[in-house]
């Protein structure tokens, strides 16, 4: 089976410069264009058999646009939501730095952010949905997962069977696409963070 990991398009939080996480901001006008461009590219080159999506507005809207292009089933699951950043959600980065400064030396992986989740809880949640996908959708040729930067980074760590740590981070740009394959007990990375479809917007 193949896994298409897709990040949502630009959201209003990106423009406002606030902590997003569980804050539920919609796509910007540019984000809508990015999602449509991505969907056209996916339809032409890597059409999925099924789409799984986070329920947060920015991801679900991106997934809906992709579904409009592909026409396959879309399933929304809360397990694919972004990191629960608790008290930081929706705060400007400047305000957050004053009210909730990052602990000196970093926050231990097992300690949750106030009103949120810990890095360990986040990783366990994502590992759980990753293994659920491998079991529940193993008969699907290509599964698209529309989610968020932090969630996708952890999905990639789960795919690579990396231990729990914060040493490695996989970044994903707006509507960035990762293509993975599991075949004959091999885990194959075909590409990471592909964004060539955004050139269509620039040229337009």
TrEMBL record:
GO molecular-function terms, A-Z: hydrolase activity
EC number: 3.1.3.-
Keyword check for Glycosyltransferase: no
InterPro entries for the chain: His_Pase_superF_clade-1 (IPR013078), His_PPase_superfam (IPR029033), PGM_Phosphatase (IPR050275)
SMART domains: PGAM
Keywords: Hydrolase
KW Hydrolase (keyword) present: yes
Pfam family, one: His_Phos_1
PANTHER family: BROAD-SPECIFICITY PHOSPHATASE YOR283W-RELATED, HISTIDINE PHOSPHATASE FAMILY PROTEIN-RELATED
Name of the protein in its database record: Histidine phosphatase family protein
Biological source species: Paenisporosarcina macmurdoensis
Lineage of producing organism: Bacteria, Bacillati, Bacillota, Bacilli, Bacillales
């Amino acid at each position: 089976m193949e896994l298409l990991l897709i990040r949502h398009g630009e959201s209003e939080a990106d423009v406002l410069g606030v902590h997003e996480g569980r804050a539920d901001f919609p796509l910007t006008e540019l984000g809508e264009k990015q999602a449509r461009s991505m969907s056209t590219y996916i339809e032409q080159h890597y059409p999925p058999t099924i789409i799984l999506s986070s329920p947060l507005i920015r991801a679900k809207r991106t997934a809906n646009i992709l579904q409009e292009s592909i026409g396959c089933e879309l399933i929304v699951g809360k397990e694919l939501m972004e990191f629960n950043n608790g008290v930081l959600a929706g705060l400007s980065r400047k305000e957050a730095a004053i009210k909730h400064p990052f602990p000196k030396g970093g926050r231990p992986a097992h300690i949750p952010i106030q009103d949120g989740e810990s890095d360990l809880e986040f990783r366990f949640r994502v590992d759980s949905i990753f293994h659920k996908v491998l079991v529940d959708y193993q008969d699907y040729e290509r599964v698209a997962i529309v989610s968020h930067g932090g969630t996708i980074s952890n999905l990639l760590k789960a795919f690579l069977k990396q231990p729990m740590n914060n040493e490695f981070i996989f970044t994903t740009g707006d509507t960035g696409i990762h293509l993975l394959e599991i075949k004959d007990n091999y885990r194959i990375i075909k590409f990471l963070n592909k964004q060539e479809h955004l050139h269509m917007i620039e040229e337009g």
